[in-house]
Amino acid sequence: RYQWLRTTTFSLRFVVAFRNISKNCAQPTMDFKLIKDNLGMAVALAIPLATLVYQRSSFGRKRERGISFHKSESFMELPREAESNYSGSQQAWLSFGLEQPLVIAMVGLPARGKSYIVNMIIRYLKWIGFEAKVFNVGSYRRKMGLQSADSNFFDANNEDGKRVREELAMAVQDTMYEWLHSSKDGKRRVAIFDATNTTIKRRLSLCQRAREHAVSLLFVESICNDEAVLKRNYDLKLQNEDYKGMDPEKARADFMERVHAYEKVYETIEDFEDSHSISYIKLINVGQKVITRNCHGYLPSQVAFYLQNVHISPRKIYLSVNAEAINISDLVGGMQSGTLTSAGLQYSRSLAEYLSTEQKIDLEGCGKEMLVLTGTSNLHFQSTQAMKDKGFTVYPTPVLNELRGGDLNGLTKSQFKERHPEEFAKRMADKLNYRYPGVSGESYLDVIGRVRPVIIELERQRRSIVIVCHLAVLRCIYAYFMGVPIAELPFKDLHTHRIYELTPGAFGCHCVVVDPERNGADDT
Q: CA nearest 146: which of 154, 158, 156?
């Protein structure tokens, strides 16, 4: 109604402007200033008028894919996807975002968090739909039988060791470029070359080879001078296969000698490298400071933005499907209104009690503070009311509302199958890409695009986060943190009245499934 009012208003003003011009031109003496003013008004009105007419037309409604903003008491005004324009798959958009294959090459001394950063990047890229793979030189070295190489092997003065290390790096690059160019369906791929790459000479050779293969190259350097973080990283490094079965003290001494060997030749990335055309991201103490240069293009800029928000502060993430409600579990698109069952009300109280206990006993630092995010429906409100009563900060956002069913919203699954058998068969054949028909219909891929701002916010937050939402949305968020392959995402079984307690770590998230009504937990 508001859109039609705007269209009518613009139309009348547009007509009046041209009428004034016509009347003035008919006079013996023309007022050129009046003509100029009215012509300017007509031109200024033409674009918004055409836009409004297009948006209100059936063609525009089918084709439009915009972003609107829901203003509420939210801590962030998250964008809501108004309409989706995937046509069965995301490949058109992914090809646009990655015009040529991309190599992300890590740079940094041992135990500076490179593997942690690699795991986060690979998890994010796979979750948003890119084919991505890590090529780790250290893993290849161990695979070739050199897992027990001592610190002398990494000494720059050891010519034999240096030659072998170069050969290993070249062999891994051969495998990497073969994989990058072997996509049978034309998908653009992203490879992460995980090695120290600590010298200008090594990085120049990487740049030259990337040009030979018509591949984009982005360096990510991790610098760490936080002693507490370094100590924790050293402890983790001593658990790998290089030091398996070795005396802990001897292992630490050997590893520190390896680090010192690298420090002697270490050269941080400089702007003048590769004839001043080098592209890089520098991370200092994993998020304390971020420097970017020449991060052109969709994907490099997305990686840079993503890495600006990551950190290693201890916290937890609690995921829960909204509490059980009356007669809605079998509905397409869920329901924006409804009432919790008695069991649902009991679960919401138990959930609030469990989180309150966690906050008092188990959490520390910034992670002790909790933030609750939920959808905007009545079911979300009822599911989180007990938490609000206990003093938790609860923020609703439409981004966490259920996958929209379009024209089929509100049908039961059996009604969907009986009334629209062809659509039902399409969905069962490809649940990931299938989009419900109608202007607001969504697919799982659409939901992933919709909740991406939430993922960035979850990575940015130092506080512990609680998310209560419908099943499809929760599957997308769970899949990101747990590294569930995107093709398996629509089938992930997440139970009602269970808390999925995630603890982010150096090598991914550890998940514990909790029944708050009996405080029972099972590792997953």
A: 154
